[in-house]
Each structure stands twice: as structure tokens, then as C-alpha cells.
Amino acid sequence: MMALEEILLHATREHWSTGHFNASESDHMRAICEAAKEAGTPAIIGTSEGEAKHLGYDIAASIRDGLRKEFQIPIFLNADHHKSVEAAKAAIDAGYDSIHIDLSALPFEENVAGVNEVIEYARRKESGISVEGELGYLRGDSKIQKEKIEVKAEDYTNPDEAKKFVALTGVNRLAIAVGNIHGISLDEPALDVERIRAIREAVPEEVALVLHAGSGIPDEQIKAAIEAGIANIHINTDIRVAFVNELRKTIGEHLDEVAMYKLDASAAGAMKEVIIGKLKLFGASNKV
Ligand code: G3H
Ligand code: ZN
Question: What topology is assigned to 4-281 in CATH?
Fold first, then answer.
């Protein structure tokens, strides 16, 4: 199987982006793999700390193994936004392929120290675990926002700091804040594409740039971000909305049905369709 780093380097050089999609149920994991298989691209499944606890770390890793056997495509399991070294280590112990250690709320030096502890632990355990760090202040969470969230220029990732951070840690991927907001925001987000370009120029090509909070960003801005150097885009709210809206509708139409697997099948289908659309938008089709 091609390593995640190799795939990301191709994406950076060829100006397309891989898609990272969150899951809290085995159905979601399957929908992500079905979409990736259909698009002909690697599947990257993310579980936040909350999603991972709901699924169970070991169970998430076992489901991934089963999906690999069934789908025969590269499938990576990422510990998304793990906000403590302990949580990241739990994911490494369970056999996750990738860790996003998000200590962006801490001062720079503490962020660097925590990321390095995770990298050392990952390298001691097993080779090949990809590690993502985060710099900048990324606001919001993965839901439909009811209030306006103001993004300030000082929240953005600073290119010089990014360069320093990457050199001091050796992360494989860097999550950046460039006007993106987690969740679907009330007003249209405005990505600072020039800032993405500046960060791309400041850090080595081997370090992939990650755009979180991909839901609710207009297609044209997504395309411009990829052109400027983004190689991995995270989507959660858009697929949560697709799944839950369809589930609500189906339950409403079949009030006597109590077999959950019958009720949630079309919800998983709706999620899959949104993922396929995103993968096409990212230019990720036909890569495996
Ligand atoms: O890490 C997860 C993503 O950044 C999801 O963000 O809910 O705005 O798509 P989103
Ligand atoms: Zn995120």
C-alpha cells in the first residue's frame, strides 16, 4: 500500500487534494470507503476524540482492517484533533495510521514539545505513522452555526512560525488557519489564498498543508486553495447534515419500522453521494 506521505506529495505537486472525512459509526466508515472506491482514490477516515470514544479506538482500527480487505484500496485511519499527548498515544496504541496532534491552543514552545513527544512515541511504536501538527487559531465546531463567528487576522497561521514549527518538529502535515471556520458558518467564509501560498513557500514540499473546516466553503474558494498548495481537506459538517437529514426523513416516513439497519441505509447513501461530490471537486478521482 502506498504510504500516506507519498500520496500527499503527489497531490501537492499535481495540485489536487485528498479528502479526509469524519466518522462516528461503522456505517460512516463504510460510506467513506464506498465513495473512495467509486471515485478511485484513497479513503482517509478521521475520528475526533469524541467520535473515537463513541466507536472505540480498537474497534475503529478493526473496522478499518475489515474495510481494507473488502475494498482493496488504500484506507487510512486518522486521530483527528487529538488535543492531548495522552489521547494521541491511545490512538497510536490502537494502531491508527495517522495522528493529528492539535495543541494549537497552547503557546508555541509547548505545542512543539507536545508534538515532538507524540512523534517520538509514534516512531518507537511503529514506523510509518503520519503526524499532523496545527498552528493558528481555528474557530468553531462541526455543526450548523447559529451565530456569526468573527475570524481575526491574528488567528491566521504565520508563515515564518510555520517554517520554524516544521523544522523543530518534523511533522508530516500542517493544519493551518487561513479564514476557515469549523462548521457551516452564517456568512460565506473568505479564505486568504495568498496566505496559503506564502505558507506553502515557507515550508518544505514534503510537508503537506491541510485545510480543516472544509464544509460550507464555496467550490471556487476550495479550488483556489488547492491551486495554492492544499493537499488534504477535512469535511465533517456537510456529511453529518446529509446523513441526519436523510435519516430524519426516512424515520418520519416509516414510523412503524424498528430495524435500524433498514432505516439508516439511505442516510449512508446520502452521505456517500456528498463525499463523491467533494472528491470530484478536489480533483481526487482516479488516483488509485
Ligand atoms: O477536522 C475536521 C474538519 O475540520 C471538519 O470541519 O465540520 O467544517 O467540515 P467541518
Ligand atoms: Zn478540523
Answer: TIM Barrel (3.20.20)
